[in-house]
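This section describes the prediction task in plain terms. A model, or a person checking by hand, is given the sequence of a single protein chain and must write out its three-dimensional structure as a string of tokens. No templates, partner chains or ligands are provided. The sample shown here is typical of the held-out split.
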Amino acid sequence: MAIYNKISKNIHELTIDNPSTPDDKLTWIDVRSPRKKEIEFLRKNYKFSLAHLQISSIKAVAQRPNIEKGDGYTFMILHFPVYKDGHIASGEIEFFIGDDYLITLHNNELHSLKSFFSSAKKDNQALKSFKFESSTVLLYEILERLMLDSFTLLDKNSIILNDIEETIFAQESKQAVSDILTLRRNIINTRRIMQNHKNIIKKLSEYHTGFVDEKTVKIYYNDLLEHSKRFWEYLELQKEMIEVLNSTNESMLNYQISDVMKTLTIFSVIVFPLTLFAAIFGMNTMNSMPFLNSPYDFWIVVSIMFVGCLGMIMFFYKKKWL
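The expected answer:
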């Protein structure tokens, strides 16, 4: 049985109560976009450290994940990648974990967490935490949901990688440069966000508290570690692929530039002797200049220039430079 209580617009409470264990209950409080009012609610109802509460405010942004033990609770900060305005940004979430409660604080960008809360509200018996009434099992389920949701971002990256490959070999190098830079930025941001997850999960599972020592819970957290390792492996593979595509695109650009430079060089080499020939016949030495006394002098000079141009083209063609 689940009892839902909307404490305020941004504070939602879900009580998970398994009838087989009437003396135990698990409370999940989900705080969205926590501001002064929400932080004050937590301060009055729980004995949390003021420093931890200040960090949990939406105005405060932690630069790194962290896990600390408080007085009868554990405080944890994690970041997950979210897709925002066409690029990957960091979605921050704080946890207060006690023996019979779990409090999550986050902004509205973590849609998968809100979706999971709604699912738990409708059918809490599908939760593993319903059986155990354990805050750590609920924490595992939340982290698993967030991590699996992060895999969808990797799927998007894979689709973009395929599109970039097609763009490169369609010789649309300028568009490929823009796409490559955007994807590289997203991969770098995702790496920065997820790089310490494995250490945090290990540290959490090693905490000797009443809610993480169970053997079953350790099995769950080993699954989280496997998810984290798999995610990092896929991310490393995508990083290598985008670097290869970047090198390929640079090679295509260099080839195109070289081809243009070759064409311009051949053109300048052909034009240079013609320019020189025209300059010579344009010198003010009328008495000694050949062909100039002939009635066909213009056509003779033009013919010589044409033959010279044709000879240069034949020479380049024989050398296979054309």
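For orientation: Residues 260-318 form one domain.
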